[in-house]
Specification:
Elements (H helix, E strand, L loop, with lengths): L12 E5 L6 H14 L4 E4 L16 H14 L3 E5 L2 H9 L4 E4 L1 H4 L2 H11 L5 E5 L6 H12 L7 E5 L16 H10 L4 E4 L1 H5 L2 H13 L4 E5 L17 H10 L10 H41 L7 H12 L2 H4 L3 H23 L3
Parallel strand pairs: 1-2, 1-8, 2-3, 3-4, 4-5, 5-6, 6-7, 7-8
Bound molecules: phosphoenolpyruvate and manganese (II) ion (MN).
The site of phosphoenolpyruvate has 11 residues, from helix 4.
Length: about 350
């Protein structure tokens, strides 16, 4: 039997549970503790684990669905699992899963997404689609469209779990919030959750990412929580105990959609998130530029050439000034920024000359 959960009006919608259902004891203990928080609407658990490295814990398989069904029976809280193919989806339905989600490694594959869509069609199960590993909105949308052809819109949701790319800001999967903003604009009627656990990769960041999601426009969270995170067989470093989860949820300030002017606050938060990312890009690029300046410094020293080379610098300045109009920047601004960069560059090369 499906437990009732209205994913479209429960706000914030909170899904939580262990990365993996490992044993009956761990699953039931976590399930019961999560139910006791009173803040969790659906319990999540991985039953088949798509692991990057072979030989890692690959999930307890179908027996774990029995444990989850037992947890649901004991607590009345529905559950959801990750499905990567038709066989998984069929088994999840057989054991009464109320929700399934398509993981980041599966969203990238239209064959698997289609067979899942065909299997869950007409079942009434809720289906959440995580973003693909790579930052590609078309791939994410394509998977969503396949599900929407099989499942009523009101049963479909999105999960933003960050993107697998060169780490930025210490996160495991940088959020690239603007892509989530883009998906929100494309599917404004679909419930959208943030997965701060997989974005963070580390317990210490989960709460700040969750707050950011609450500041933006997200409808809720899917968070990894384990009764004993230190001994978790997968993603041990990012899981929270149910009581830490509860404490975090109590601290999060959710914006109310009916604040004075909701579209103003939402747009402002989205734009600021974009600005934060651009700032991080700018300074990342400046760091890389200085590293190259260091290498040039090495060569200049080895060839006993002066650090300051007037002509080269004038070329750089003229080149950028000629693009002022096109960039929408004033010549004064370009000059000020380039002068600051130049000073820093020279300081770097001086350090090299002085043996650092
Ligand atoms: C998970 O939710 O445990 C998981 C494997 O997530 P993702 O697909 O986002 O990597
Ligand atoms: Mn995980």
């Amino acid at each position: 039997m499906k437990a009732p959960v209205d994913i479209n009006s429960t706000r914030p919608l909170i899904i939580a549970g262990p990365c993996s259902a490992e044993t009956r004891g761990q699953t039931l203990a976590t399930y019961t503790e999560l139910a006791a928080t009173g803040s969790v609407h659906i319990v999540r658990a991985g039953v088949w684990k798509p692991r990057t490295a072979p030989g890692s814990f690959e999930g307890a398989g179908e027996q774990a669905l029995e444990w989850l069904a037992e947890g649901k029976h004991a607590t009345g809280i529905p559950f959801g699992v990750e499905v990567a193919n038709a066989r998984h989806a069929g088994a999840a339905l057989k054991y009464g899963a109320d929700m399934v989600w398509i993981g980041a490694r599966t969203t990238v594959n239209p064959f698997n997404v289609q067979e899942i869509a065909d299997t869950v069609a007409g079942s009434g199960v809720k289906v959440f689609v995580k973003n693909p590993l790579n930052p590609d909105m078309e791939l994410w949308s394509g998977a969503v469209e396949r599900i929407l052809r099989a499942v009523p819109r009101g049963d479909v949701g999105l999960i933003h779990r960050g993107f697998s790319q060169a780490a930025a800001g210490g996160y495991r999967n940088p959020p690239l919030w603007h892509l989530a903003v883009g998906m929100r604009q494309r599917y404004p009627d679909l419930v959208m959750l943030c997965d701060p656990s997989h974005i963070s990769g580390s317990r210490e960041y989960v709460s700040e990412v969750a707050q950011k999601a609450a500041d933006l426009f997200f409808d809720g969270l899917i968070v990894e929580s384990h009764c004993h995170p230190a001994s978790a067989l997968s993603d041990a470093s990012q899981q929270l105990t149910p009581s830490d989860l509860q404490a975090m949820l109590e601290r999060i300030v959710w914006r109310t959609p009916d604040a004075a002017d909701p579209s103003y606050t939402e747009t402002l938060a989205s734009l600021r998130a974009e600005i934060d990312e651009i700032d991080a890009e700018i300074f990342g690029s400046l760091g890389r530029r200085m590293a190259i300046a260091d290498r040039i410094g090495d060569i200049k020293r080895d060839n006993s050439v002066t650090i300051l080379q007037e002509q080269r610098w004038n070329t750089i300045m003229d080149n950028m000034l000629s693009r002022a109009g096109q960039l929408g920047l004033s010549p004064e601004f370009i000059r000020a920024i380039l002068d600051a960069i130049h000073m820093e560059s020279i300081a770097h090369q001086n350090k090299i000359d002085n043996g650092r």
